[in-house]
Amino acid sequence: MKRKQHEKPQDKRDYENNGESWLRGKTIGRGGFSRVSLAMTRRVNTRRCNLPPIMAVKWAEILQSDTLQEEREVLADLDGCPHIVHCFGDEVTFGNNELYFNLLLEYGSGGSLAQHIKRSNGGLPESEVKRYTKSILEGLVYIHSRGYVHCDIKPANIILVPSSTFAFSLSSRKRTTRSYCYVVKIADFGLAKKVQQKKLKSGWRGTPLYLSPEVVRDGIQEAPADIWALGCTVAEMITGKPALSCKVGSDVNCILFQISSGFSLPEVPSEMSDEGKDFLNMCFMKNAELRWTAKMLLNHPFIAGDGWETMALWGERRDYETISLLRDAGVKLAIVSNFDACLRIPLKDLIDVTDLFDAIIISSEVGYEKPDAEIFKATLDHINVEADKVVHVRDDPRANKVGAHAVEIDCWLWG
Question: Which domains can be identified in the chain, with CATH numbers?
Fold first, then answer.
């Protein structure tokens, strides 16, 4: 679904058809039979107490809402994945003498990835591309594991959801100003299908510039097709323009011919790192059976590289979602400040916590407790992490002798 580029006069219906516990706002996107509007939750006690203050409501006339209702079923099957747009439910409303089906969705206030790329005026930094790509891949792993193919992966169908963070610089040891770090989520499942589902009469679904050869040539649209589209998306993030080179205003049939014949293939950006180029080559394998899977690509050096990025979430969201956001943002260091019990518990509850981060920083600043070896050992046992996985922030010189060193934690000077 495309988001509008310029403000247009709002249809009267945009402000009607309010839900039981939400008010419809302005239109922010339009599709063939549906549109997307902002919605604000009513400040009253209702049965729907799980709605956020602001949502995106995707809606259509009830008689033209088959695709939207199918999308609702897909999102229900994919519920629980942090890399996929969250659906808060659905509701039928009445207005203008019509019934409307409404899908209540998580709002990406950062806009779409396509808009973000356009604002960059020439492409995004590779470090940012890696972070976004990893999140998209983890979403695709989940989608494919649940037996679905998205069928329309492209920048316009990836939304940016902000997360308030504080960033730390290893070189300067200084905390930067508060900023917003966006995490990306896969959205728009209107064309999604089950794996090996009977193909459409048209033979394919999606957007021509992101279709793989086997989709156009043979009408086979399975998980490898999503990987091809991901490669096109990654290349577009780097260059700021579509990966498949074609003239402005090219006929769709001409584009499809180029893809099916292999006459024109997506371009691998010359400015990418060698690892990035190899990553795209794995996405653009002509033979779908040889194309890497999402799970394989997560272990590619381009995504799972050795570079360390550090970031600590600041605020009150010290829960499982906080740790997940750190991981999804490409952060390789988890920080346990002051042996914070609120943070240790969710770390302990994570499965294979040692695989999530390259290292975990702990602090010897323990309030009124003495930083002895037992305190450090208890912390490590609590989060189930080996000492060689930990870097110690030396807030108290006593900890070097009787604390961190006693359990073989390396000291790392701060400030």
Answer: 12-105 (3.30.200.20), 113-167+175-298 (1.10.510.10), 332-412 (no CATH)
Looking at residue 170, its pLDDT comes to 32
Q: Are 116 and 129 in contact (CB under 8 A)?
A: no
Question: How far is residue 396's CA from residue 393's CA, in Å, rounded to a whole number?
Answer: 9
Quick check: 84 and 137 in contact, CB under 8 A? no
* 153 three-state secondary structure: coil
Helix, strand, or coil here: 240?
coil
CA distance 259 to 265: 7
Residues that are catalytic:
152
- Binding site, by residue number, is 58
Cα distances from 270 to residues 153, 221, 236, 397, in angstroms, run: 23, 29, 12, 49
On the question of pLDDT at 37 being above 60, the answer is yes
> At residue 315, does pLDDT exceed 70?
no
| Close Cβ partners of 287 (under 8 Å, ≥ 6 residues apart) | none
Bridge-based pairing state of the strands 311-312 and 22-30: unpaired
Alpha-carbon distance of 92 to 20, in angstroms, equals 10
pTM of the model: 0.70
- Quote the crossing angle between the two packed helices 223-239 and 113-120, to the nearest 10°: 20
What digits encode the pLDDT tens for the residues 186-227? Answer: 999 999 999 976 655 556 788 888 999 999 888 899 999 999
Give binding residues for ATP as ranges. Answer: 58
Alpha-carbon distance of 175 to 414, in angstroms, equals 12
